[in-house]
Amino acid sequence: MKKTNVFQRVFLSFLAGYMTLSCSSDDDNNNAKTIGPTKTGKFVVAASPGSGKLGTGTYFLALDHLDSGKDSVSGNLNSVKTTSSFTQIVVNNSNNLVGFIYPNGSDLGQGKSGSRAFKLSGDNKIEELKGSPFITGRFSVTGNFGKYIYAISNNDNSYIYERNGDNMTLVDKPIDLASHMIEDKKPSITGIADRGNNEIAVTFKYTNSDNVFVAFMDYNFTIKTVIQDTRISFSGGQWRGAIYSQIWPDQSGNIYVFSGAGSGNKTTKKAGALKINKGAITFDSDYFFDIETAAGGYKFRKVFPITQDYYLIEFYNETSDSGNTSSATRFAVVKMENKKFKWIDGIPDYIQISSNGWPLAHKGKIYLPLNLVSGNSAIYEIDPVTGIAKKGFELASDKEHIRAVTYFEN
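RE: above sequence
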């Protein structure tokens, strides 16, 4: 195990959105009464000034709610600025945030990748944790499992973040992908889903195979078994060098493995999803959701869990254009068990949307930040049952862009 040179100690065994930003763990099904101090929560909007391009920094603004309101982030005494611009933002357990930095626009040094870690302070402002920032190698997919936040490197290793008090530590951890080659090709990791109990389901992509592969590992990245299925292509979306996980658990513990069939994928297979039942290590042979046909021929790039077995999906704008840098500003909700599909109503038309930020799933709804071609960026609350969105908090200046919204407890 390789230890980064910024730490004094190595730990044993971190953010959506998921910037995937990972969703809040505040689900609807926890009816137990908690005895003890009540935790207070804050929504936090991460936004960038100017055109929203990398290199302009990020402002964090804490809010009591997202239902309404209008405010600016730059020049706001209640917001906190960091010099870094984040391409991916991951939050874990409603109290740890890691923002990931690509070389393009990096403030960590010419051509350097890295990250910064934050918490919500006692005065309800974002505060950088000790040990941050971190210099890393190039990474692709990010997310969280257990108490960790991760970033997968392009070179058979992973960066694992763990918070201890006010300190964030990082371990550069190798993964034995060479032992699972197909012919002379090693797999790359395109997504991770937490199954709990020290087990993760990990999607593999092989450049010489058009099938979907899932590896079952423990939290230490020890590979136990690998399964494959021919019904869909590889799982994972892409924008330039960033990879977006398309494998997610539902609230009952089933795993849904999506394949958007986009990002330049030349497959003839339909964009859709397979299911791994709770506790199983095989694909459910009776389950296949042809999402592409349900969507009228559109392929997709990102998938975000909402609640129960509802998911928000980001689709490409054109049925004939689903490349690595193609626009994807159409959105729909799917209910996986019943294979129900609905385009979102109540948001701006896709041609009016320039980009979206990392969304937040919270108390049965999902809050989606949308940046417009012309006009102010705003957060839309989406009800997955009805597929209807309503506009909530918006930025006061059309020169600011929302990169993410999340929820913290202190």
